[in-house]
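Usage

Read records sequentially. Each one opens with the input sequence:
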Amino acid sequence: MVESAEYRRELEQKKSAYALLSSLFLTLPDEELVGSLQALAATPASGDVGMHEIERYARERQGLPVEETLAELAKDRVHLMRGVNKNELRPPYESLYVSNPAQGTLGSLNRFYAESGCRMSDDVKDSPDQIGVEFAFMEHLLSEELAALDEGDADRAEEAARTRERFLSQHLGRWAYEYAKEMKAAAQTGFYRGIAVMIMEAA
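and closes with the structure output:
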């Protein structure tokens, strides 16, 4: 029973991490994010390397105008996620990081999404191979597994776990680490350097 509780806690932590990563890649920085950073600056230091980098950035920005921090984060995000940079960092799309032709990558991703009952939200104006979309799918699979465990449906939980493992081995796990390594080197803010480390740990 202890193992089951620990496993569930691990799934919850992973789900939260993927939810955060997905939102950062699919939505623009806003005042709520800056507010979260200001709150983080007052908390005790974390032992997690990525979070430690983010906390340090939050403390550096403490007391500065929200608009200034927001502008700095937005500028860095454009550099890192839209290919507008001097470091030749490729944008976070799987088809730019794997050797398969783009059509093969996109076709395989769309099959994964469809077979799991997922479809791209109308709010998402991006490609199925954007890293934020893939993070959102991982969050969905973790939610499915947790729901199945809550309902005592071991078969459905196992199926969600298998799909997650296959998705990591065939997609996200094949390229996210490489992107994050390049992202960390190119990031101009401690916030996005910390996010890059979090991706490296999750991939």
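Summary fields computed downstream for this record:
- The CA atoms of residues 145 and 157 lie 4 Å apart.
- The helical segments are 2-26, 31-40, 49-61, 66-81, 102-115, 131-150, 154-186, 190-202.
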